[in-house]
Amino acid sequence: MAAWKLPARPEAPLEGRPVSESASEISELALLNDANPLGYLIGGRVMHLVDIGAAIAASRHARCPVVTASVDHMSFLHPVQIGELVIVRSSVNRAWNTSMEVGVKVLVENLMTGERRHTTSAYLTFVAVDGQGGKLSVPPVLPESEEEKRRYEQAGARRAYRLDMKNRLKPQAG
Questions:
Q1: How high is the pLDDT of residue 5?
Q2: CATH for 17-169?
């Protein structure tokens, strides 16, 4: 089988892309094979769906393969009952040289009543890669709406915090 080959990336600076180009939504029915003994979807399955949804948004923005670099705090606000629809919405909030922050919101829908509840949110960082172990540049995000501009600014503050924590965790020489 021939190895998959990535198309060449342009040398010139990449043009910015609006948030709408990365916005993605996936849905999945919560099934019994992913239930805990209480009849709720296991948290690890929700985390998996969050990672998949975020990877789709990051790939759509970067137009190349991406890998998960980190996941910020994740809280489970409401349990997901078996038989409910899990809806994962994601989009790239901001991009830097080779990394992107993706915001994810998970909703659960009762298919009998139509009631929707926000169950989980998370921020993930993805890095664009070339498949050879190298990193690739990604285009900047062009926020358009006031909400997108707010998320763009907040992503910068979260990145500064992440980098500060990373530096604090580095082993000190000596």
A1: 58
A2: 3.10.129.10
Output the six-digit token pair for 84: 């409910």
Tokens of 92: 């790239």
118-156 as b/e: b if 16+ CB within 10 A: ebbbbbbbbbbbeeeeeebbbbbbebeeeebeebbeebe
pTM given for the model: 0.88
Rounded distance, CA 135 to CA 116, Å?
Answer: 39
Amino acid occupying residue 75: S
Which whole number is the average pLDDT over 64-68?
A: 96
Task: Report CA-CA distances (Å) from 87 to 12, 23, 57, 79, 130.
Answer: 37, 13, 14, 14, 30
What is the pLDDT confidence band of residue 45, given thresholds at 50, 70 and 90?
very high
Q: Which 8-state DSSP code applies to residue 2?
A: P
Strand partners, 26: 88
